[in-house]
Amino acid sequence: MTVMEVVRLTEVLLAAAVAQQSLEHLFAGHGRGLFGLRLVLCGCLAFGVGGAFAVWGLWGASLVMLWRFQGPYNGGSDKMTVLILSCLSLAHLAPSPYWAEMAVSYLAVQLVLSYFVSGWIKIINPEWQSGRALCDVFRFSAYPVSEGLRAWADQRAVLFAMSWAVMLLEVLFPLALLHPDALKLALVCTAAFHLSNAVCFGLNRFFWIWLCAYPSLIWFQDRIFGGPT
Amino acid sequence: MLRLISLLLPALIPSWRFFKTVAPSPRVEYRVYCSGQAGDWQEVDPRPMRVTIAQGLQRLVWNPHWNEQLFMVSCSERLIEVPTPHSFEMIARRVAAQLPDHVCELQFRLVFVSRVQEQIVKSVEYESAWVSLREWRA
Hints:
The complex is a heterodimer. Chain A is mostly helical. Helix content of chain A is 77%, strand content 0%. Chain A has 10 helices and no strands. Chain A is globular and about 55 Å long. Chain B has one domain. In chain B, strands 1, 2, 3, 4, 5 and 6 form a 6-stranded antiparallel β-sheet that branches. Chains A and B meet through helix 1, helix 3, helix 4, helix 5 and helix 7 of A and helix 1, strand 1, helix 2, helix 3 and helix 4 of B.
């Protein structure tokens, strides 16, 4: 894939993810003007109408959202949305393919960091090492989607194993860059991790928006570690 | 402009420190003023007892209510860390939207749930003044 093919694939995925977010905002009554416009821009982006202006328009709408909600509305998923839009915007502004590659590479590196840093800060924490932290997530955090799910907090052995599975997946994720097949396997595992977070903790937007960044990493792996073309 | 940059920078250079620690978790409770007396405190959006796998998968594509609740969690944390009228208003409007039209005043409070050794403890960290709903609904 060329860098601009990756940009285009990311745009199509992003159009779907941002449209999903915008429909939820419209339903919640957060402003028809802003989120209606966002929805129209998603349509333009998906069908290639308006070229880079659709990306820049969505980036501008993200700034308005940051102001409106005085920060991200949906935590990390909004941050990833802005990050992807920023990298795509810069790729379109780039004066040469080299700088477009830099913009997409930055997104790929941030995707790797999103797993590695998240895993590292857990693995050095004794509460995560013992599985206690994940018990607390189930027992009293705001995330479990039902009271019934809180009963998982008593499954100490299961949560201990799950804690280590997540921490090792996240910390070892950068090693997957060494081989394309390892990367694809790692991305399937991380997608499954996001899916479980969506089902258990209702973090549906994280699932879709993180998938949008995957093509950039597949391209990056091939660009940096792939053989000569 | 500086404020906008300060909001944008964490998205451009994210810290990615998800669940570094499991911090005390806020719950929003409210009560209304009716017939000359204050009612009992009630939790906003209590969770259901069960969510089926099918419902969980359906929420993968459509989950506006839950995402609104997560935003209330963010606003609650912000109201404690750096109190602003914005966080207050977001929470008050969200609670007000769920109340019937005849309710004139509401009060909300933030109850933080945490673990102290083996005990789950709750503490009220914030209690709002009474809010007249006439101006919110105008």
